[in-house]
Structures are given as structure tokens and as C-alpha cells.
Amino acid sequence: MEEKVGELWHRLITRMAQTLHPEAAVRLNEIHTTVGILFRALGGDGGLQVETAHASEHGARRSLLHRIAGDSKRVELAWRDENSLHLPAVIDYFSSTSLNRDLYIWLAALAVGEHQEEEPWFSKSQRLTAETLARFPGLRARYLRLVEAHLEQRIHPDRRLVAETAQEIAIRQALIEPGSVERLPQAKRPPQPVSLWLHPFPPIVAVGIANGNEEPGAAGRGDIKDLEEEERRQGERAEKLKGKDRGLITIRMETIFTWGDFLNLDRSSEENDDLDSAADAAKDMDVMSVSRDAKASTSKLRFDLDLPAASEDDLILNEGVLLPDLCRVVPMIAANAEPMALPDNLRRTARKLRAQFQQLAPARVWFRNQQEGSEIDLDAYLRFSTDREIGQASSSDGLYRSLRVGSRDLSCLLLADLSLSTDTWVNNHARVIDVIRDSLFLFAESLAATGDRFAMYGFSSRKRDPIRFHQLKTFDENYSANVRGRINAIKPGYYTRLGAAIRQSTKLLETQSSERRLLLILTDGKPNDLDKYEGRFGAEDTRMAVLEARKAGLHPFCITIDKKAGDYLPHLFGQGNFVLIRQPSDLPKELPLLYVRLTSN
Fold first, then answer.
1. Which one of 91, 97, 319, 320 has the lowest number of neighbouring Cβ atoms within 10 Å?
2. Residues 433 and 523 in one domain
3. Is the same domain home to 512 and 592?
């Protein structure tokens, strides 16, 4: 009975305290593309990606109902850093869907302005607002509607709180007439959040935790649930908690207790926790502390991590090559790769692809007027005989013809991302690395049928030294059982220093004298490495490597299975120079067909 009464009370007080409008909510994933295009069209940095924002505590005074209900402590505000434009995952502040959508558009426009690190938040917000309205006068009507709706929602502080009242009056005046208030009055508490301005103290985005390999035999046969969320979350590493040492930490009996959340992600075989409950618990955590033991699990939550793969290393061929960006590329080859036939599960698909690709093989054509050949060229012989009969001098050279195979004059290098993120699962049966392996098999089978010159390499990195460059097939090698053995031996490596790998591939393709030279890049994520090679730095280095490849006369083209690739690949490769394979399991079949489209012109 007590629980029932408590549940009813919770529902009642929560409903009374509700100030949001979920029925009119607009989600970032619904407007993500529009916001990104608008931000760049208005002059925003093309290298920035649109990401979801962390919710953070605002510390402002709340209403009595909110304090009783225990909510409205946190708020999602927009901000911009050197890598991303962070916007709320959901905007449901207003009762009108159009106003919530307008707020996304306004925040994107506001973030275009010039940001000065040392400028106070209050004056900076007014300056950005005034500059945005001056540059884009068409936004003024939208801004005024947002201000009117926002002011109606703001809490009027108690008149006895003189300092907080002065703060609120200053903010209201600054919203109505940007630039009219010189400074924000001081108060004991921070002011109420201003959803039309950028975050006053943007949170630091934690570096993602990497994905570790599962121990052999650790994978269970239970249910698997993907944890897909709109809001980005922070993570940290933690040791495995044992026994009853979960969550409760006592300092001294006469002092307070401290309670910490523990999320049982890696459940043991005898447990059968409800996956939906575990997913809900994960979503409620601001920072995830993840540990791992060797026990098998009957069911699990699945999401991407980023831990180094523990596996035997490949054979280093030489000391490596030092690139202009001070990265050392070390060529490697599988040490224990045994020659093998094509896997049985790929043979049927390979036969179909070979039949299609054989039609692309250059046709056999007659070369006439040859000094020697397989047959006499009757036309040339008749001309020679006629000229001799009428007394005209004629050379007896070129009286033969020869049947030869033509040439497409094309070279292709396929560069495969073998970073540790390829150890993640695309479904209940295969990982990303398995999909890449099958793609390489079918790609090689298809190109062997055309006679085109091609090479295949894989790469991963650990900082700038070394860049591991795995040799699968060189231009001078024929496709054989040895090559298939190397493809079969690929495994997840370390990180994705894409710029260095592209530069090394460019050097290899430059040695080919073909008229057309194609560089295909197969990846599952954005550039990243341990030494701050991530975000904007990694993206710009990759973009520069792509431009260098184009200047060398190559055609770089990226194939990815990353669902968020549309945020950053247009900036790296340009529109029309990449493709997203939405179903990773389709990659093996799609890759050869994509090659046909790229080389058919």
C-alpha cells in the first residue's frame, strides 16, 4: 500500500512540475542534416561535426514544485569547440513544434560567429546575438518569437532576493535588446539557463573508451541488445568489483555514506538480467565505469569500446619509411598465413561476380599493318600488290595482322582499415573485421577476372610511429592461394591514422604508369589515434592527404559503414567521392559493384 501511494504521489507531483512539452519535441537526429548544411552555408567551419550535447547541472534556483519533484537539475545547452558543434539531443522547451525547430536553427546560426576564449559569457552572448542578427536579418523575426516564448517560461525570483532579481532583469533586457547591458550583476547562485545562448561553461568531452576483444569462448548464446542513445556520455575505466563491494563505500561510521552507481554490463552465465532494465540503468548514468572478467554471459548489452587487441604480431619486412609528416610507415606481412582456397560460403557469390566482371575484360582486337603476326592482312597485301603492278614503289612491311588482348590501362589500390574498432559486431554472427575479410576476398576474385592491375593493403597505427602497413597483395603479384591466406589472416589492430596510410598508398600508386589510378579506402570510422590525432586535427590531416593524392593524379574514393559518416566525409573527400554502406553485411557484394561504377567511364 505504501508503495502504491508513493507511486501515485510521484506521478502527481511530477506531472504538476512538468514544464517541458514532449508532444512538440524535435529531435536532433530528425534535423541533423538540415542543421549541418545551414551551419556551413552561413559560414561555419566545414570541419566541425554536429554532435549531441552533454546535460550538465546548472546550479540555478528552482521552483518549489521542481525541488519537491527532484527534477530540472540538469539542462542541455549548445556549445562549440574546435572539433564539434554540440546541440541538445531533444528540444521540447516550447509547446509549438515550429518554435522548437526554430531554436535549433537559431543556435546553429549563433555558433557561426567568432568565439573569443577570454570573453565573459554574458557579453559574449550579447555580441554573438547582435552580430548574428546583423549578418542574417532574415532570422530576426524567428529570434523575436523565440525570445517572447522563452521569457514567458523564465522564473521570476522572489523580490526579497535582490541580487538574483537584478540578474534576471539584466538577462531579460539583454535578450530583448542585445548589447544594451554592460555586465551581469553578481549573485550567490548562477542565473537560470538561457536556452537561446550558448553554454556558459561547456563541459569537457571525455575521450571514448576503446573496444576490447572478448576472451575466446566468452561469448554466450543469449540475447544481445544494442545500446543506441542520442545523448553522448562520458566513460572511464575501472577495476572489476568483487563480491559485495558494489556501489556502497563507507568512510567512517560516524560520517556520511557515499553511494556510487555500478552497471553490471558483463553478466555471468548464471544470471539472466532483463536487458531492457539494464539499458535503462545505463541511460541514467552520466559516467560509465566499465570493467571485464573472463566469465561467459547469457545475455549482454553491446556498444563500441576501444581497447588494444591482444594478438600475435605480423612479420616486419623492413625498418619502414619516414613520411614528410614525421610518421614512420612499417610494412608488414602475415607471419603464419597458409595458402588456402576461397572459403566455401563465398564461392557461389564469387562465381556470379566473376561472370559479371569477365564482361569488363578488354576485348581481343586485331592489330593491322604489323611486320609479323598470326595471319596475312589481306587488305594490306592487296594494296601492296596493286601498287607493284602499276609500278609504284611500296614497302612490304606491315603485311600481317595479329589478334591481341586490349588494355584498360587502370591501376587500383584498395586500402582497408584494420583498426581495433573492426572488432565490433555488425550482427549476431559477424564482426566488422569478418565483413572486411569477405569483401577483400570477393574484390580480389572480381578484379582477377578483369585482368586489371590491383593491390591490397591494410593499416592500423599506434601514434605516429609505427603506422602498421599490412601487405596483402602487391601490384607485381598474381592473385593466388598465398594472397588468400594473407587476407584470411587479417585481424583487428590498433588505431586509425588515416592521413599517413593515404600518403603511403599514394606513393605506391605513383609508381604505376597507368592512365587511371584509383585509390579505394575502406573504413568503419573517423580518423583517430592516441597522440591527439582525433577530432579536427585528424580530420584536417586526412583531408590534406586526400588533396595531395588528387594533385598526384589519383582518384581517392572512400567506402564506409559508419552511420555518422555524413558528418565528416564530405569535408574530407568532397561530395560524390564517398559512399555509405548502410547495411555492413552487404559490403562484400557492394564493393565489387561499386568498383564497376567507378571504372566504367
1. 319
2. yes
3. yes
Taking Cα atoms as reference points, which of 476, 487, 520 lies closest to residue 501?
A: 520
The set of residues, in sequence order, having a beta carbon less than 8 Å from that of 351 and lying 6+ positions away, is none
Q: Global pTM?
A: 0.60
Assess contact for 536 and 83: CB atoms under 8 A: yes
Residue 358: phi and psi, rounded to 5, are -65, -25
28: which residues sit within 8 A by CB, 6+ positions away?
35, 50, 52, 87, 88, 89, 90, 104, 230
d(CA 334, CA 266): 33
The CA distance from 271 to 250, in Å, is: 27
Q: For the segment 45-84, what is each residue's pLDDT rounded down to a tens digit? A: 877 888 888 787 777 777 766 677 666 678 889 988 877 8
SS3 335: coil
Residue 564: domain span: 315-358+408-599
- Beta pairing, strands 364-370 & 375-376: unpaired
- Look at the chain and report how many structural domains it folds into: 4
Give the whole-angstrom CA distance, residue 129 versus residue 121: 12
Quickly list DSSP for 5-21. Answer: HHHHHHHHHHHHH----
Same structural domain, 10 and 85: yes
Q: Is residue 197 part of a domain?
A: no
Q: Is the dihedral of CA 312, 317, 318, 322 positive or negative?
A: negative
